[in-house]
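Quick one: structure tokens for this chain, please?
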Amino acid sequence: MQIIIAALVLGAMGLLFGLLLTLTSKVFAIPANPTRDAVRETLPGANCGACGFPGCDGCADAIAAGKAPVNACPVGGKDAADKIAAIMGVEPVAADNRKVARILCQGSSENCGQKFDYNGIHDCVAASTLNDGFKSCKFACMGLGTCVRACQFDAIHVDPVRHIAVVDEEKCTACGQCVAACPKNVIELRSVKEKITPLCHNTGKGKPVMTACKTGCIACGLCARICPTDAITMVNNLPVIDYDKCIACGACITNCPTNVIQDT
């Protein structure tokens, strides 16, 4: 009898709490926003956070509220941006100025030697904790694929011969996961229009850099001096290009003594 009573009491409590939850959900329900829902339906659902909002729901909320542009989602690309523009009743984005991940390093096995043989965990973060990594240049890409495992879109891989990360720009969505995963900070998101790129992250200068890597920037400043539009300045011993001034003449590429600046 006691068991039956207990079961009835629990059942009654469950029914009561269920009714309370139903009532609460109706009282505090958020009114549907058809525009927001349509925008959310258009987003790819990667929830990568590359848009700067907490997942696709947050991005849809911001776009529908006019707090983010129609092309806020880098993963969706221009197709998604055009569809969202139609939903929002605005003009589509005219130019494809999307970003892609770029490896700012040429420290491959033929250019950058090793300080020691590494036989530890096949992970860049783990390897970098040992004497700044096993590569001669402490700024170099480790080539152990931590960025590869971070990418959800199969847009990055490690060259098996050169042992350096390579980005497939056609697949890259600029989600930024590889950037966050790289312990050497050699991956950056760059506009596809920014073709002329210094591919070195070593802040040293002169002979020590050359000893560490054949294609390291030695901070000679020649690129800055010969640039006809003054588009290059040296910052922390590395060339920084002002793409508003750059005319892509190629003078910096042909005159760089260590081939640091490349047309990517």
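The chain has ten helices and eight strands.
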